[in-house]
Amino acid sequence: MATQSAAPPATDAASYLDLAITLSLDSWPALTLAVQSNWGGPTSADKRAWLCGAISEMMTDRPETDAEDLEDVLIQVMNDEFDVVIDDESAGNVADQIMELKEQTVRGEFGTIKEMWEAWQAKSAQKSTAANMFKQVESKDEDQETDDDTDEDEGDVEMGDAPVRAPREKAEPEIDDDGFTKVVGKQRR
């Protein structure tokens, strides 16, 4: 994964709004799970990118769009494109967040979006570090498998005879005056 620059790539209100839409959708667990699981098919990530663009266009072309309209679009796209029925309040929460961020960009306030961007970068860096660590461990495992394979190719190794242990003496059972055999636990023998 390529590292992102320290500052958001946005330069004006429209760019900040696009960034806010993308970050909001990327942080929506239902959509993230749908994309990671390829519930929308092999082009699931492309569908998420398309959704970001479609919402941005909707905000530009129809400025009267409100949170309810946006929620309806999110629910419909999740159902149509990912076969996911959203029955929790998450679509409404994402729609509310996007509308609030839109209002902030209209006022020229970009602080929240910048904070979201920095949090996203930090999370991406952690995922990248974890992925690299996994690749290193996986690489070491492959190297060990290669070493193990070469041992098998060299043929059987003579191990010698196993050491011989003297058999333990079996304790004679104790018989009491009435002719009963006394039971002794293994630890007392």
UniProtKB/TrEMBL annotation:
Protein's UniProt keywords contain Heme: no
Record keywords, A-Z: rRNA processing
InterPro entries: Pre-rRNA_process_TSR2 (IPR019398)
Keyword rRNA processing set for record: yes
Domain of life: Eukaryota
Pfam families, per database record: WGG
Composition bias type Acidic residues, residue spans: 140-159
Region (Disordered): 127-189
GO biological process: rRNA processing
The family this protein is said to belong to: Belongs to the TSR2 family.
PANTHER family: PRE-RRNA-PROCESSING PROTEIN TSR2 HOMOLOG
Protein name (Swiss-Prot/TrEMBL): Pre-rRNA-processing protein TSR2
